Amino acid sequence: MAEVILMPRLSDTMTEGVIAAWHKKVGDTVKKGDLLAEIETDKATMELESYQQGVLLHVGTPRGGKLQVNDLLAIIGAAGEDVSALVAQNTNTGSETKPAPENTKVETPAAPVVASADNIDFSKMDEVVLMPRLSDTMTEGVIAGWQKKVGDAVKKGEILADIETDKATMELESYKDGILLYQGAQAGEKILVNQLLCIIGQPGLDIDAIVKSVKNASDSPAASAPVVQESKAIAATPAPTATPVVAATVVNEGRIFASPLAKKIAKEKGVDLKFVKGSGEHGRITKTDLDNYTPASANTYTVAAPIGQVSFEDTPVSQMRKVIAKRLSESLFTAPHFYLTMKINMDAVVEARAMVNETSPVKISFNDFIVKAVALSLKQHPKVNSSWLGDVIRTNHHVNIGIAVAVEEGLLVPVLRFADGLSLSQISVSVKEFAKKAKDKKLQPADWEGSTFTISNLGMFGIDQFTAIINTPDACILAVGGIAQEPIVKNGQIVPGNVMNVSLSCDHRVVDGATGAAFLQTLKSYLEAPIKMFI
Predict the structure, then answer these.
(1) Residues with catalytic annotation?
(2) Which of 24, 25, 68, 508 can pair with 336 through a Cys bridge, CB separation 3.0 to 4.6 Å?
């Protein structure tokens, strides 16, 4: 039986998608995992992979056409299968789609038919919900918590679950009414993109048949807890007997739900909440759980460590760290980097900041001055505000500055949009909000997409100078060190001055040395005479 593919919701705010490209045409054989199409949403252009195999029998709209979420996107089935009834049944005449191709019956050599639910009455099935791709780099999601349980009534727009991706924890809304009949995983478990997440329908539906036909058998195992491994002691005498290792089971993966009082008690007792099983709703940890918690189950290891003994700890790589490693490796080994370094006298900024903060409604930081100066400098040097796209170099007329923010799991880069038009106060408020959202895992795809230039500031960590890897597709990234007092020459005299080191990493395919140097000179002029930024 042919399989109907509907337009998925690829972001939490998506209502419609535009077909940017089809990678398969009607009549082509499609395998599981093949790239079907590129779909442009309200936030990004994302790749849609097939989770079935067979022959592409019908596409809902050609390249450039628009489909609403849940409109007919494609049909995959057996070669020569008549799908005209399915097309008629699933065509939404109210959506803004272009006319679908008329050729819905294809005579091609036989191809493997997907194991679909031959005995399922699709007219009764309201929705099979698959794990959506909630970011452009997401390959799997972790169920941080279910907001609905099996048997609950679900209305369109209600929150079904919290999904932890490689970048943030996002709320997944239902776009159908019905009863939650099945959950594909429990809190803390992983589901690959396009695997069965849940089923919403009406009582009486044959859930077992649907699960058997739709669910991918290759569920990815949940990440295991860190394991301490020990080797034999390297010594001439026998090593002392080690105290047995007490290995605890991690019961909370990803986002942990706990009451404020439980978090306070855990902090006071030094208890790691990932080892505490919650008894509240959706596994929420309460004060009672902390009162009943015994340290014997904690992830503590009392291992004797004689001289010469080797020990180590292996920690599973998080999704965020995997993406960071992949992106930075691609950037460093693909884009030919070169680096320009400059010292900037920050005396004038130190003085201006003190004056501004006397009347400013929000506290202005040195970084806010730097962001403002960079934004204005980019308007004067558009080649630095460009991107390498392979066949073309895109010169951006808008200035969207990515601000690198360190979080426990790695690094996130929220984007300050149209930064050249923002005041110091607006920059300050926005950067603080982004930093808080990043640390709370509340950033959404729209927050980190679309940068044209990036700033990485490690000055607050006591770093004097460093170089950074370009955040592609940006052409440059500015690495900012701390402000330190150094001897400088002023009016022929050696006096102490506040000096800051900056290093510009450039993609040599886009930016030449003279171009990068001119940008730094403009940046230096703004910071050494900050009054220019307000003219």
Answers:
(1) 508, 512
(2) 508
